[in-house]
Input
Amino acid sequence: MKHRKSVLDALKLPPPPAYDLSIQGLSIGVPPPERYLPLPVPIPYPAFLSKNKDLAYLEQTIIHDVDVRCGSGEVLAIIGGSGSGKSTLLSAIVGRLANLPVKQGELSFAPTSLSTANFQTLSARQMKDKIGFVPQNDYLLPNLTVRETLHYAAALRLPASIDSTTRRTVVDQTLDELGLTDVADTVIGGFGGLRKGISGGERRRVSIACILVALPSVIVLDEPTSGLDAFTAYEILLTLSELAKRNRTIILSLHQPRSDAYNLFTRLLLLSKGSVVYSGFTSKCLPWFESLGFRPEVGVNPLDFLIDISSVEMGDDAKREASRAQVDRLVKAWKDDGKAYSADKSVRWSRRVSKEVGAAPTKDFAGQGATALKALFNADEGDAALRRPGLISQAISLTSRANKNTMRNHGQTLGYAVQAVVIGVMLGGSFFRLKGTPTTLCFQNQAAYFYLTIVYSVYRYCNELVVFDRERADHLYKAVPWILSEVVANLSINIIFPGLFSIILYFMAGMRTDNLAENLFIFIASTVLVQLGSIGFALIAASTVREFASASLMANGTSIFFFLSVGYALLQPPVYVNWIRFINVYWYGFRITSISQFRGRTFDCVGVTGVAANQCRGDQVLVGLLIPPEDPLWKYFVPLLGVVIGFNALATVLLAYWHPGGVKHAAKSGSHKKRPTPESDMDIVRQKIHVEVKGLGLSWVRPSHLIMSEQRKKILNNVNFTCPAGQITAIMGPSGAGKSSILQLLAGRKMNAGPFAHFQREGSILFDGHPLSRDQSEMVSYVEQEDEYHLPALTVRETLRYAAILRLPRTMSRRSKLARAEEMIGMLGLEDCANNLVGGPVLKGISGGEKRRLSLAVEMLNNPAVLIVDEVTSGLDAATANVVTLHQPRSDIYKLLDNVVVLAKGGKMAYAGPRKNVEPTFNAQGFVIPEFFNPADFLLDVISIDHRPENEKATKERVAGIVAHWAEQEKKEAGENEPDSQKVEIHEPLHQESRLTPMWIALPTILERSFRNMWRQQPVFWVRIQQTPLMGALFLLFYQRLKHGPQGGQDRIGYFQQILGSLPFVGLLNSVAIFPPERDLFFHEYNSSAAYSTATFTLATTIVEAPFTFVANLLLGLFMNLLAGLTTSPRIYFQFVASTFAVQSMGESVGIIFSAFTPSMGLSVSLVSTILSIMMQFSGLTSLSVPQWLQDLAWATPLKTAARILVINEASGLQLDCPPETIVSGECLVQNGQDLLNLFGWDDYDTGKYVGIMMACCVGWRLLAWISLMIKARGW
Output
């Protein structure tokens, strides 16, 4: 295969400075067990409290005594089985070990251009700007195109001395090198499921491209070919090999390298469970193992051979123990004699390095950008040519990037728009044309004090800061330009939508119309600034702690200080919290709006005379609110702007110096120690099923809408093949060939087309001649390409045991089901990680390969009749009809296949039939498979398009010819087989037992699983108990014991408003923190053999939630009923607890309803916040001018009845001390409990009846949540 030019060759640019890597005796330990105090921000237990705990972890290591070297111009490949420590070693090389301790050893980089006298090694931290690291996971902004992503990567990563023309040339060449030209103008997609975007393989290439555009000296890649087809994987390795020849040091880990990649690696490091099996030159590797009696067979991929002999076999105990003994022998042999065998005595490693070693000749470099890069690469440390863009350049690039990403986030924009319009209309309806009477004026100022939710902003930043943490680890930019870019990029949204809300509310509520332009502008300006302050405060919370559960608890708890010091709900806060108003954006906003609306204004209080008429003067209203009417507005506007700036400045400091983000490594769980289990009595006999695909076509269509024209993309084009029972059928093809789409259609899974789009399907898929119905889906198991649906805080063994109980027939005993789980652990080689936590995005658990095998083990538990696997390389049982996709199949795996389906890009058929006929079919077209060449790699090579300009036209013609040849052959075979086609259609109907696991089996299992998962996530566990009573304790700081003075009535109204207004959001936060992972697992299991009813899942969710909510509200009642000085008795106390419980539970139910339908939690949180805000306005506690039909509608929520229960119970026997002058001034709103009830106009005081209605509403909302889940699960 012809080698492609590197970026440097194409541009005739000089290579970067060269560095050599040296690792000597490196050992890395396991993370210490971490226990945290139950606080919003996780703080470890003090050392003296845990000093007597188990210290066995101190003796354990992940990496043990590793020696390895890699010089400039060399490629080091780190290989080994899953869990061998490859990713951990790479993390050490780039200085990102997080909480993993280095037990011993040395890791350093040495510049090759220095003489012996000037020689000085550098640590990984000192090499931070010269190392490009591609992690195993992709962190990309979803709404940018591929070209834009690389453009901004180059702008941020390349030094400022590189001009824009050179940067564009580097980006274009990188797109060509990595085969991304076809998707250069396609968005990345992926986040939240609202944009389909590019494929997983293409996303992987973009991550690599982001590093390559920076032209680093050392490139470190963790599984760079993961998810790629063999052709693209080889092209990437070839590109890396060519880059190494230009003085790069390339270090990468691999799990499935193809045979012709062997010679691309200069050095190999073979690991097994963290120990070295071989470390040295590739040329000396096979001779070493031959000396130990291990010789690869002819035609076997040497890299596969090395991984096989150094891995513990899956299967029965005898094979497992024999292979384990073999690995131990290999490790010991290398420890005893390997270092002497691989000793490198070259001059460079003896630290006698001449200036010429690795120096790049410059006479040939004369091209675009050569001068700038030559100066850059020849610069000394600290030279200006090496400096990356400064703060201003960073801010400009980040602002442009953030602006595009924000403007294209249609889900977020829609949420903002809905929130602004709906809340504006509903608030306007609640305060619609308030009359000017003393009774209603006390409510009119409430329109100036509305709840600007910060919930969505906390959620958004908790997600976006993951990308920030990743890019900060690469030292791309500082915190200051990132903050500036966020503020500027979102400024238009934060002006337009709050402005729209303000205009709607202003005119619907009948606010001040004299000097309309001035007063409306003041209202809009105040609203916008308060919105910006709210978002800045949300950023502070997310900057302090990244987990949404903890960040939302912190934001919700702290915001209570702000809302209670505003001066409306509580006129005179205690002196020790009164200072908070000076940093409170809501305090300034309330005063600005109150002064502009009431100063110098007289209300037409019809029929009101005498002393009461004084309350119809706006200045008196301000006096009652303790606001000096003569205060100028700038006195509040200036500090309001200062607080907004201060919040963002504090967030900047936190982001710069406080680093809570990143991935932590999970400690091994001590639960479920392996113990003897009986033999599985697995006796499930599946009907053999023949799968047939006829004329299958799939198109993505987005119809024309307003200014958008119709778009259509063909994904599958007339696909025909069969999957005989008892045989393995593999679907192969390059990225974008539609392999995963076929599997989703075979498994009957719904596909997400994105907003305003849908899929059009043609043809048929038959299982023994019949379409697969939903009730028969247990017979088909589908292993998805992504493995993120596992609960992160469960161990591998626990995950399999719970799955076995749910998936296996009810006729099997629990003991036998657990034995089947243990059998799968042994069959798929998961013994060594069986007690390790699975892990998730922020908790590093088992390796990617182990997680893949776990997903396969879960689906194989019940011995399905049809097993559909998206990307798998091992563990298949030939007794079932297996349909798999393969990106990089090994040659020995290819020989296990019975049938092969080859697809070209665009879902076009290139071959479908028995594996034995592949060679004759392609030979007839002139494509002869070379001897000793992996046939699977050959097929992918000939069917893939090489996007280099010099090869693109020829390869497209070649692929088109192969597709046309197969189409002709299909027509010919169809004509020959037509007389027999009717015979295939006659089949016995499929038969199986009910697919749903009974509730009496599923419910206890789900409950145990959920409690265990939540208990191990301590922040989430404690948040559910802490958040509600913490809110009560904070309220108590402000209200203390409610007084019986002139402000007593207004204080009590504000007190109840705060309670009922906050609790639904507490329920929402609890739902968002724990429900989405459980929801994803439920929907996955509902479509599998583990299916249980939506009623079971809803009941389990309720049972898990209810005790926490009830205990939390019992504690809340102690603070807010007993200690606050409300009227109380045993009846009143428990009615108070019942009211707060019902309101909080409704918040959780609403959260479940919306998250069931919206894949984007950001949109869900925004919509739920809107709904809860609206519900509060209709409760009858906030406004007296709610239209009658809305008042009637409010009876469907617990808020209305809860408000009546709290007010009626407090009014019984209430007597306030109101001197006459306070009545005249308007300071005393009500004088006794009856006045309080008269203010609201209620005449029915039966709280027992209200409790019954309220609890019925609570149950009703949970039933609505169940119905929503059922609609979503069944696809109605």
